[in-house]
TrEMBL record:
It holds the Pfam family IspD. The gene is ispD. GO terms for molecular function: 2-C-methyl-D-erythritol 4-phosphate cytidylyltransferase activity. This is 2-C-methyl-D-erythritol 4-phosphate cytidylyltransferase. GO terms for biological process: isopentenyl diphosphate biosynthetic process, methylerythritol 4-phosphate pathway. It comes from Tepidicella xavieri. The record marks R38, K45 as: Transition state stabilizer. Catalyzes the formation of 4-diphosphocytidyl-2-C-methyl-D-erythritol from CTP and 2-C-methyl-D-erythritol 4-phosphate (MEP).
Length: 260
């Protein structure tokens, strides 16, 4: 299924607040304009119900629970009628693009229209990572606040890493790769608005080729984002079996909270 070309952000966007000059703010930007082709679900995976709520509602709730976050911008596909802001701090922008990077770029423009400034922080987080916890978000914020450009949650590789000989089937091992310096990138990825805008704008002409996360675009500017240890539970719901895993973990967390 192809996504229609993105509508540009409306010229006048409802601002998050009527801020005067002040300290840098933190905003969450949630790309939620994908179709979930690998998920096997009927319709986009962010709208599937897991543990009593939709995937995206779990995700947004985690950011709303972080007091330092001034607002949450959600990027959905043009024409998507399934997501509505349920909180004063949420803005919904129908500016999703053909790729995740394109959706994030359009969301950055919308965020600027809603009042974000060059030095403000933007925490980009996949709608599909619905197991993110407020404590993980706060750990990233604490680690990155004094960084020049920002950083991301990531996990040191837990398994032995193999390189395949090529694309042929069945796949065969070419080599075992040293894994001591390899990390799996997660989200949120936290960068200053201006840095991320520059990084993505530089890749716009090539259709954001090879930009699979925010960090990769920032790295191409010559920057070295900070790696902050994330959590294995912060996985991205991608394949059919991931819904059951997410359901089990979220139900377990609810039960543990009730028992406390
Ligand atoms: N054009 C796109 C593609 C993806 N996303 C969002 O980016 C996140 C991570 O992308 P991914 O897991 O690849 O989601 P989908 O593109 O929906 O899944 P698939 O690749 O299986 O189709 C998701 O929250 C998705 O909604 C987006 O905003 N715009
Ligand atoms: C951004 C990301 O979640 C980092 O791991 C990931 O790259 C997005 O997944 P996609 O399948 O490439 O859209």
């Amino acid at each position: 299924m192809t996504i229609p070309p993105p509508a540009m952000p409306e010229p006048v966007l409802r601002p998050f607040d009527d801020r005067a000059d002040g300290p840098q703010r933190l905003y969450a930007l949630i790309p939620a304009a994908g179709v979930g082709s690998r998920s096997g679900a009927q319709g986009p995976k962010q709208y599937q119900r897991v543990a009593g709520r939709r995937v995206i509602d779990h995700t947004v709730a985690a950011f709303l629970a972080v007091p330092a976050i001034a607002g949450v911008g959600v990027v959905v596909a043009p024409g998507d009628t399934q997501y509505h802001a349920a909180d004063e701090r949420i803005r919904v922008w129908h500016v999703g693009g053909e790729t995740r990077a394109h959706s994030v770029f359009n969301g950055l423009l919308a965020l600027s229209g809603a009042g974000a400034r060059a030095q403000d922080w933007v925490l980009v987080h996949d709608a599909a990572r619905c197991l993110i916890r407020p404590a993980d978000i706060e750990r990233l914020i604490d680690a990155c606040r004094d960084e020049p450009v920002g950083g991301l949650l990531a996990l040191p590789l837990p398994d032995t890493l193999k390189q395949a000989t090529g694309q042929q089937a069945p796949p065969r091992v070419q080599a075992t790769v040293e894994r001591g310096d390899k990390w799996l990138a997660q989200t949120p990825q936290m960068f200053r608005w201006q840095v991320l805008y520059q990084a993505l704008a530089a890749r716009q002409a090539s259709g954001f080729q090879g930009v699979t996360d925010e960090s990769s675009a920032v790295e191409a500017l010559g920057e070295r984002p900070l790696l902050v240890v994330g959590s294995s539970r912060n996985f991205k719901v991608t394949y059919p079996e991931d819904f059951a895993m997410a359901q089990a973990l979220l139900m377990h967390a609810d039960a543990a909270q009730e028992a406390a």
